[in-house]
Amino acid sequence: MPTASSSSFDHLMMRRALDLARLGEGHTRPNPLVGCVITHEDRILGEGWHRQYGGPHAEVNAVAAVTEPHLLSQSRVYVTLEPCSHFGKTPPCADLLIEKQVAEVVICNLDPNPLVAGRGIARLREAGIQVETGVLEAEGRWLNRRFFTFQEQQRPYVVLKWAETADGYLAGPYFQPVAISGELARLAVHQWRAEEHAILVGTRTALHDNPRLNVREWPGPDPIRLVIDKNLSLPPTHHLFDGSQPTIVYTYRERASKDNLTFTTLSQAEDLFPQILQSLQQQQVQSVLVEGGPTVLNSLLKDGLWDEARVIRSARRLGGGVAAPHIGLTGLHEQFRLGEDEVFVYLK
């Protein structure tokens, strides 16, 4: 809850800061998306966002954009995440705001990172700066849901995705690939790939579909490719092994890694997916889009190791084949159309 009553202007400026933060999507991970707006007497002095990992933070870019620096000491700063208080790739943003002697700081979300976790706010208040928190808190948590899940649950944010026919199938008999969704849905999937840090498929999907798992139809970075190949049975000529983007193969066997292709050996004595998620967490992989088949999807659903599911439902009917996972209506968050297809978004 906000620490003080916030005005409609506060909400407007924080919403602007959240919009700015979104401009960094796909480029800041594993850092969060952060936007900042600096105002003076209901007028914007400067604004900025965290553009890329390792680069200046939102507050630094916003301060640099101010053309009337003499007004900073009378300014109100809106920032979507608690200013950092530690030295990382860049100096602490809390120190910058203290140095500029800003009058007030309005914060959307507290930073759960143990290196920050309230220390930024404490430092600002100790310097005599008025601080308000919790403005548009729910919107901020949704924007940075990957970051918050990674920090609070110590695992990547997991997005399940599949396309199914109107009669509940996601492939033909014997896993024969079938074009189910339309052109707009295909574009949306490439957008989703650009938004996530990694993309995962199982052995059967890799074998039958021979996917590239890259972003060809949407601007943005390619995700890290993840494939489960327990016995190293996939043909080395498949696209996943072409070295075109970082790829991790999860296996029970030993094999030497090479450029852009890493073989990670898992224990057969332990559950598969907790090991994979732990390995990804250790590598700072913040989110995973799962485009696997029914075995992978049903396992993650059964074990509760998912956060969001996006189901593309076509009007097409197959009359038989490989059944799609059943998720029901529990947790339905959003429903919309993409051409002739319907998309259902579920939250766990």
From TrEMBL:
Substrate binds at R193, L213, R216, E291. Its EC number is 3.5.4.26, 1.1.1.193. Its cofactor is Zn(2+). Pfam families: dCMP_cyt_deam_1, RibD_C. It comes from the Bacteria. It catalyses: 5-amino-6-(5-phospho-D-ribitylamino)uracil + NADP(+) = 5-amino-6-(5-phospho-D-ribosylamino)uracil + NADPH + H(+); 2,5-diamino-6-hydroxy-4-(5-phosphoribosylamino)-pyrimidine + H2O + H(+) = 5-amino-6-(5-phospho-D-ribosylamino)uracil + NH4(+). The active site is at E59 (proton donor). The keyword Magnesium does not apply. NADP(+) binds at A163, T205, D209, G293, P294, T295, V296, L297, N298, S299. One of its GO terms (biological process) is riboflavin biosynthetic process. Keywords: Hydrolase, Metal-binding, Multifunctional enzyme, NADP, Oxidoreductase, Riboflavin biosynthesis, Zinc. One of its GO terms (molecular function) is zinc ion binding. In the N-terminal section; belongs to the cytidine and deoxycytidylate deaminase family. Converts 2,5-diamino-6-(ribosylamino)-4(3h)-pyrimidinone 5'-phosphate into 5-amino-6-(ribosylamino)-2,4(1h,3h)-pyrimidinedione 5'-phosphate. This is Riboflavin biosynthesis protein RibD.
